[in-house]
Specification:
By secondary structure, this protein is of the alpha+beta class. The chain has 6 helices and 5 strands, in the order ββαβαββαααα. The chain has helices spanning 24-33, 49-58, 73-82, 87-98, 107-110, 112-130; strands at residues 3-9, 15-20, 39-46, 63-65, 68-69.
Length: 131
């Protein structure tokens, strides 16, 4: 399952709202190639292309160009309250939704800390199984 990511330019402060199935580092590297601005991941949430489109429509009044938006407080607040800042917690949430263990709308209620803890436990289990 893909997820929605928010990437911000350090100088312009513009925010890209996109969707990907790749780890954010790979996506950022590709985006960075075509950008004179230094880009950084500022948040992500469970969602697909349809949800990405909904977000583009929701924030259309702040649109700069393409999938880039001016950093209005409405977008910043959405990221702060509806997204994860830790990509590993986000990947864990996406996995849980993909596996059908939880619904997408339950992710924020469960919380970033819980998904981070689940990810750390999963890594610990994998290490124990190797050794």
């Amino acid at each position: 399952m893909p997820y929605i990511y928010f990437v911000q330019g350090e100088e312009t402060q513009k925010i890209k709202i996109g969707v990907t199935k790749r780890v954010i580092e790979v996506r950022l590297k590709r985006l960075q190639t075509g950008s004179p601005d230094i880009l950084r991941f500022i948040g992500g949430c469970v969602g697909d292309r349809r949800y990405e489109h909904e977000l583009h429509c929701r924030f259309k009044e702040y649109k700069s160009h393409g999938e880039w938006f001016f950093p209005d407080k409405t977008i910043i607040e959405f990221i702060k309250h509806e997204c994860f800042s830790d990509p590993w917690a986000l990947y864990e949430a996406v996995d849980e939704v993909t596996l059908g263990n939880i619904k997408a709308d339950e992710v924020i209620q469960i919380g970033e800390e819980e998904f981070r803890a689940r990810h750390v436990k999963k890594l610990g289990d994998m290490v124990r199984n190797v050794y």
